[in-house]
Specification:
alpha/beta, 6 helices, 7-stranded mixed beta sheet, Rossmann fold
């Protein structure tokens, strides 16, 4: 069995906790995570919303010929707006959705990215409470899994969200195995 793969796009102003939590939990589960800068420049370093500096593995333009089992977006502003405006990322997300592979977002990104490009129009989603009015089929829950889409509300739900990503890719046993040593 090949290792599962995930793409985590990041941008200036991505939410710190969400970004690191997604990457960390997926890697604990053995997922091959590619962190990609979605900024217009070729620089791989971004400054997150709370001033944490994060260096991506690659630029999103280098990911266009790759297939991932999951694409997971952190939220945060203006990070989600940069992700929304990244044509390469939207191309990848559209293909991800139409192919039935997992796509996910937390905090502002379900509304700012998915709703702006109608990627959530046929699935139930959640988002940060300040953005739920933009969602087509809003569900008031900390994490929502519908079809091949996973969404969540914010920094306080980042661990639950990340563990839901693990479960989607690798099953409930792996979720439990990853969560146990984190003393949740």
């Amino acid at each position: 069995m090949h290792a599962k793969t995930a793409l985590v796009p990041i941008a200036e102003g991505s939410e710190d906790i969400e970004t690191v939590c997604i990457i960390d939990v997926l890697r604990r589960a053995g997922v091959e995570v590619t962190v990609a800068s979605a900024m217009g420049t070729e620089s791989l370093e971004i400054t997150a919303a709370r001033k944490t500096r994060i260096v991506a593995d690659t630029h999103i333009n280098q990911c266009l010929d790759q297939t991932y089992d999951l694409i997971a977006l952190p939220g945060g502003l203006p990070g989600a707006e940069h992700l929304r405006d990244c044509a390469a990322l939207i191309e990848l997300l559209s293909l991800q959705k139409s192919s039935g592979r997992w796509f996910a977002a937390i905090c502002a990104s379900p509304a700012v990215v998915f709703a702006s490009h109608r990627l959530e129009s046929d699935v139930a989603t959640t988002a940060h409470p300040g953005f739920t009015n933009k969602l087509t089929r809003f569900r008031d829950a900390r994490v929502v899994v519908d079809k091949n889409c996973i969404t969540s509300q914010g920094p306080g739900t980042a661990l639950e969200f990340s563990l839901a990503l693990v479960e989607a890719l690798l099953g409930p046993e792996k979720r439990t195995e990853v969560a146990a040593p984190m003393v949740l």
